[in-house]
Amino acid sequence: MQLFIGGACAGKRSLVKTRFPSAVWWRLAPGQRLRECAGVMLPSTPLILHGVLEWLSASMDSDAGSDGWRSQWCDDLNELLQSAKAQQTALVIIASDIGRGIVPIERHQRRLRDLNGWFSQDVAERAEHVWYVRHGLVMPMSPHH
Question: Whole-model pTM?
Answer without folding.
Answer: 0.92
